[in-house]
Amino acid sequence: MKLLKSFFILSMCLVSCKSSKTNLAFEDEKPYDITIAFGSCNKQNVENILWKEILKNNSDLWIWGGDNIYSDTDNKEKLWKDYQEQSMQTDYKKLQETTKIMGTWDDHDYGLNDGGEEFHFKDESQQLFLDFLGVSKIDKRRKQKGIYASEEIVTEKGIIKIIVLDTRFFRTGLTNAVDKSKRYQPNKYGEGTILGDAQWQWLKEELDSSHANFNLIVSSIQVLSGEHGFETWANFPHEVDRLVALIKNSKAKGVLLLSGDRHISEFSKINVNGLDYPLIDFTSSGLTHTYSGFRKEPNKFREGFVVSHLSFGLLKFDFENSEILMEMRGKNNQIQQKLLQKY
């Protein structure tokens, strides 16, 4: 892991302004121990102006949050061509040369819009996705069902564990909404699964055995925001309860949820009885296109405001103070919103 370069940071608080266009002044320089960037919703045939901005932050890791390309196909040649188009972009190639890359997929790179376990091409799609990430041919993901994986960043000061979930391969059917303003509504409690039995068992073992100072759980779809009527963990309310209980009972330190999919960026936060820190879902989306017509959307767990401009997420870790500074950044590397959480 390369050494971090010092960089400027913003004041340690949640921005309270109402517009994501607000210019924010830099304050005193403070070094952080590790920096991780992440994002989602990236069209390979559209210029991604944010790669240059992402590179400016000298991150130690880039995490793809899903919809890394838009292909929506069961044609192997087309899917690989689309991945190659992304891989050959000049600024993304620079990121590959300087930064470790990992991630998950969502539906459009999986190959089927809102797709789940029913997709007949998922085994072939999995291999192409792993090829895109440069995963070794002998990696266990080459033989397992689903792309879930974990990895640790180990430093002299502490450890960050990244747990990448697969919310596509095993996900069972969704319930169409009666409310015509929405696409889906929650399944009956206890009906269906997002992760499937094997992945749930794996996730439990990963959290129960974690000695990391911080644990990042990457989900392509939002975990906490559940009122909008699109894809979300809240369509499987028993799965949300199971995840929260698993996190609490594991005693894992500093768990933070990362998500994408929505073409907007926002923070969602809940307080959990028995958990001595709030559970935050940091949604970062999108990289090349956004919900530009966004006006409002209910989310009872929202912290701050919705950013509907192009953005990527940035996480800055301070082991000594057990803090993560979370930032949404966009054009010209401008900070759009930020949140500091102490664990």
From TrEMBL:
InterPro entries recorded? Metallo-depent_PP-like, PhoD-like_MPP, PhoD-like_sf
Query: Which residue numbers delimit the PhoD-like phosphatase metallophosphatase domain?
Result: 50-272
Top-level taxon in the UniProt lineage: Bacteria
The identity of this protein, by name, is PhoD-like phosphatase metallophosphatase domain-containing protein
Name the source organism: Litoribaculum gwangyangense
